[in-house]
Design a protein that fits this description.
- The chain is 73% helix and 10% strand.
- With 137 residues, it is mainly alpha-helical.
- The protein has one domain.
- Strands 1-2 form a two-stranded antiparallel ribbon.
- The longest helix has 30 residues.
Length: 137
């Protein structure tokens, strides 16, 4: 029984420290604005993917089209969800990186750089989602 108590204690200490780090991270207003816009774009990606998934009539979908070769990747329509999942994974990775960089002197510059890259990545994911939509519909 002591084993589970120790695990619970360490988990609660970790969660308290994580909460303090998140509060320190989100005290900057530009980080809040970036994360809100990135989360909204990612939410749009999830909704668009669900719309595509529910409105396609076949089980197989065209996932990639090349101008030179034509259709070069066909798969299950569940693979539509890779694009928003990819964006969500990058959000989590960037949040972890920002938490590690929080104590640095040049944190604001690094945070602007990382979050700008993440915003640009999500814009390209929207374009990729649109191309998959235009190919299938």
């Amino acid at each position: 029984m002591d084993f589970f108590i120790k695990i619970y204690d360490r988990l609660s200490v970790f969660l308290r420290k994580y909460k303090i780090l998140l509060n320190n991270l989100f005290r900057f207003s530009f980080i809040k604005i970036y994360f809100i816009s990135i989360i909204l774009i990612n939410l749009f990606l999830w909704l668009a993917t669900y719309y595509m998934y529910s409105n396609i009539s076949q089980d197989i979908a065209i996932l990639h089209y090349n101008v030179d070769f034509g259709i070069d990747f066909i798969g299950d329509k569940k693979l539509f969800f890779i694009i928003p999942l990819f964006g969500l994974i990058f959000i989590l990775i960037d949040k972890i990186i920002l938490l590690f960089l929080l104590k640095r002197n040049n944190f604001k510059f690094l945070a602007y750089f990382i979050l700008s890259f993440l915003l640009l990545l999500h814009i390209f994911l929207v374009l990729a989602q649109y191309s998959v939509y235009s190919i299938n519909f």
